[in-house]
Amino acid sequence: MFGWGHTQSDDVKAKKSAPAFLQNVQKLLRKNDVVIADKKQPPKNNTARNCANSHPTSNPAPVSSRSTVLWMFLNTHEELTPAEVDASVDLELNEDTELEDMVGEAVDGLFKVKALVGEGGPLEGVEKPDAGRIREVVDYVVGSYQVQKNVAREKANQEKDAKKVKKQQGKPPRYFGLAPELNVQTFVDSVFSATTEGSEQDSQRVEAARFYEKLKAGKRVTDEPHITIVHKKQLPQDQDIWDTCVDVVNMDQPPKFECKLNKLLTDGRVMVLVVDTIQFPEKKDNMFSEEAWREAEKQGKEFVDALQEETKNRLHVTVGTENAGIMPVEGKMLVERWKRGERGGVSCVEFEEKVVGARLRGMFS
Q1: How far apart are CA 209 and CA 236, in angstroms?
Q2: Is the pLDDT of residue 201 over 60?
Q3: What ranges in 194-328 are assigned the alpha helix state H?
Q4: Rounded to an integer, what distance in angstroms lies between the CA atom of residue 116 and that of residue 58?
Q5: Residues 42-57 pLDDT 10s
Q6: Minimal CA–CA distance to 276: which of 209, 185, 352?
Q7: What is the C-alpha separation between 302 and 280, in angstroms, rounded?
Q8: What is the C-alpha radius of gyration for the chain, rounded to an integer number of angstroms?
Q9: Which helix (H) or strand (E) holds 360?
């Protein structure tokens, strides 16, 4: 938008990356008034975009999936301190805020920083972009711009993914399940931290909290949650729902479903979040064209209608098991017992209904 320079630490191949990264910044500063230095920790004395009053830190430990990476950045952050930057622009982010509006808010903030717009500043005499210009830039970024990647690492990841795909080609998934957009540990933490009437005296809540702390201490809380819909072991009797899942997963733009959670169960061996209902969203997803949305709605509602009562009565997200010797299927059995009214030895913690988005996936492990 302003023709500023940009460099990132991932571009540096030298063993001592910090000096090389700084040299890259200095080279760009000879040609640009402002350089966006994209580093894992923001360098001091720069104007910062302070989103939710925090910035992420990274951990060099390997992670198993993109979702793990995302949750790592969301959960491991340090508060931005005034000493780190000359000025900051606070952005209020939520799921209803359009990208264009957020960029506009950031631009407004930049033009209020005297060090930028004042005499000698990089924005001195620069006309503030109007809504049309902001829209043009956002469309370009969303449609075509890509940040440069570490080529060697990207190639290795592509080869790894290709091997995985080749191995799975022609091989049906072990089961179909919904992958909810949920950080299980963060959510369950919030359930137990919430105060409800009589909660302190609730023995079931106390027992459940004790078991949950045990799961956390043993690192037994899942970081890749799923909601099993149908397993290949259920074939051929459940062929209809299996085929429906295949149709949904193979769509060009599969729909996102809404899953409603309302209680937590544990028997001291396994802990689960009970999925009360699965439904197709009423509000149209703006990422879909009208035609694609009609097709998604058709297939999505067919999937929901195909769910039998037997399936609905076991839907859950496994929080964790006491040890590796306990099979995850015990979570399903726990929910089924509860739904049949068999409450002996089971602790139940109810909470305010939580709606999470989830997409259907063919799962291999």
Answers
A1: 40
A2: no
A3: 203-217, 239-249, 290-306, 309-312
A4: 30
A5: 444 445 444 444 444 4
A6: 352
A7: 10
A8: 25
A9: strand 347-363
